[in-house]
Predict the 3D structure of the following.
Amino acid sequence: MDALKLVTVVGARPQFIKGAALSRAFAAHNAAGRGPGISEFLVHTGQHYDHAMSQAFFDELEIAEPDVNLGVGSGPHGSQTARMLEGLERVLAERRPDAVVVYGDTNSTLAGALAAAKLRLPVVHVEAGLRSFDKAMPEEINRVLTDHLSTLLFCPTRTAVENLRRESLAGGVSLAGDVMYDSILYYRERAMAGEAPLSGLAPGEYLLATVHRAANTGGRERLGAILAGLGDMARTAPVVLVLHPRTRGAMESFGLAAPDGVRVAPPLPYLAMVRLQAEAMGVVTDSGGMQKEAFFLGRPCLTLRGETEWPETVELGANTLAGADREAMAGWLESLARGERAVPVDARPYGDGRAAERMVEILVNHFRRG
Ligand code: UD1
């Protein structure tokens, strides 16, 4: 039987991490020699292009270099997505894979799904069914549209399966578990070995913060409130703010500086972020991935948004939603200091760490036997 031919589309930081988990599972499947092999052709859209946002991940996670880099770079959503579409259509039309694999909710995800669907190629969506129910988020638009274009929808959680059911999507939907959990289990030991990524931080005594969502970086008032909230926190514990280039740019253009006690760091590699989260007293973020990584690593999280795609973390008491509210930020830190934010250790809402393996099995069954 011929190998199953896949084209994978990635473009932004978290997709390199998620893609690595599946690439490893493809290699394991091929090495086991059971059933048809899988050949993967990797396309990088070039959405993220700074060394620290892209190549550093390929080096560290030992991911095969992309077969093609479309080099689209930054731009307004419409033109960035359009440039991706144009490049992807060309690659997909030439290769005619059995399916196209896309991850998450970025502009690269939507472009991959749309280019494939228009060429009548089946789309496989990893991290399907997540919803914030906030259409003002570009990511929400990307994920809803991608789900509705997909043939196989791999959900990380029961909530995600239920969200799809409410949108009348049931065919091809499976509860596969979360590849980010696979990834933490795989890399954790390596992350904890060796030297600490940043000097001068006492384990368990600092807060780790990131901010990059458009809603938080698009206006001076909101970004200013978040920075002020971090400044309040820094009076209790040192705060490390790992700064996305978008946020750095926004602070510069609004004339905002990091408050006293808030130490700014450049974008860091994955293993460094895992280590810094594992050793933090708490994580303050608007990232989707870090809300879960903090949970996997047993660290309490404060989310700088009003809603989350990961309600399980909130229901389990591990995550608190604060928006950009300074008082809520301070209140969370007080409750943390009182020991009220313990993260439950035996809850497993994100699967068993073998999500990628399960996805491979479903993929092979669907496209080769199904
Ligand atoms: C994107 C995703 C988001 C994901 C995040 C991970 C969309 C709509 N959003 O957001 O879901 O959580 O990636 O990081 O796809 N920039 C650089 N260098 C880079 C990349 C970006 O300087 O290597 C700057 C540019 O000024 C750019 C801005 O960051 O305009 C935003 O980049 P973009 O890729 O549009 O979105 P992210 O905020 O990274």
